[in-house]
Amino acid sequence: MSLVKLTLKELQDQFTRAEVRASEIVRAYYLRVSMVEPKVKAYITLNDKETVLAEAHALDQELKQWRKTMPLMAMPLAIKDNICTHDLPTTCGSRILGQFRPPYDASVVATMRPHRFLLLGKSNLDEFAMGSSTEHSAFGPSRNPWKLNHVPGGSSGGSAAAVAADECVAALGSDTGGSIRQPAACCGVVGLKPTYGRVSRYGLVAFASSLDQIGPITKDVMDAAVLLNVLAGHDPLDSTSAEVPVPDFTRAFKKRDLKKLKIGVPTEYFTEGLDPEVEVAVREAIEELGRLGGEIKEVSLPHTGVAVATYYIIATAEASSNLARYDGVRYGLRSKQSKDLLEMFCMTRQEGLGYEVKRRIMLGTYVLSSGYYDAYYGKAQAVRTLIQRDFEEAFQDVDLLVSPVMPTPPFQLGEKIDDPLQMYLSDIYTISASLAGLPAISIPCGFSRQGLPIGLQIVGRPFEEETILRAARAYELATEWRKKRPAIR
Which residues are registered as beta bridge partners of 441? Predict the structure, then answer.
């Protein structure tokens, strides 16, 4: 089998046994990137091949000295371009940051550095992670490897497309309202959003600080657990980082069945607006979870209907505050058209920010404005608490919740770009778990008649990633979906 087709765990095992050299891995992946990247456009910045090869040659020389390799050693990864890296630009898919090169690594990158992973490049995203299709990137849209005239999802569309197209063995993404799970579903790969606070956000360029979370996008569930083992842990640099024990997440796979697990199916997630093809695929997946030993039970999440409105008040309010720092003074773009300080602020933001980002800043500024704060932002925070209580009550009766990831299969490029409401509804099934800070995973569970992937979402209690990983892995091994790969033409 070609090296680029292997999972992270398979490739790392081969490297550890000296069956393949790090330099061979690098050459194989750069060859693959040269073949498909002009079509997929998953990356904003590619690392210099010779630089990565030099790192690989050093690893090959050192391998004999290691009694045991580390899980990410010699593994070629992509990192979403809103996660700071000191050796490559971090643009957030925006003109306003251009070739901004951070003076430091994000904590997740700093944590991975000692593992000697190989950074292939920074992956494309909707500008400042605001979008569901990667069409809002200032560097142009990425494309779905399964059907190049369709979106790869967003905002981590570049990361998901790179993994699906075998342009990296795994990638990091960020999830605010579904931006890991939704593109993973669109591209037929695995996307894991950890519990809020499980993985450090330090060095993740902020969109909505109470929602943002970094997580892995991988070829299978085992790889997601391997990456989470490295990423998870308390970080004193992040005030929202949780001081909770970090287990070995791969131990969740010791049990191959789902006996004694109660699996809830929210009735509100299977109503009008759900594409029939998606519903059939997800219902069949739920039946398979039952055959694996899970006890299937209907549950209710009564406030699901107001989750989208709640999210887009809270997220835009926090975005308005976080993006105020991009003013042309400290870093990034500075307008050359301005005559005074105020005009410099205005012209820099006008020239540097895209229309979707401007739309969200304006919405957020409005809901935070005098006279509207309590009516909108304050009320949204109250409803957020009700959504969290819905999940708490549901988890008194069940261990997991399962649902679709998206209401439809991936849509065509340009199909929803002029209809923001329809675009926002792409995340209708992922937003609630984000508002509640819960761990959730997307795994492939079928394909549409057009040959486009469909995803299954599994949501768990806070800090119980092992449970959702166990269920996802059991389903993955019982089906053949993970073995299907796109034929990029």
Answer: 192, 458
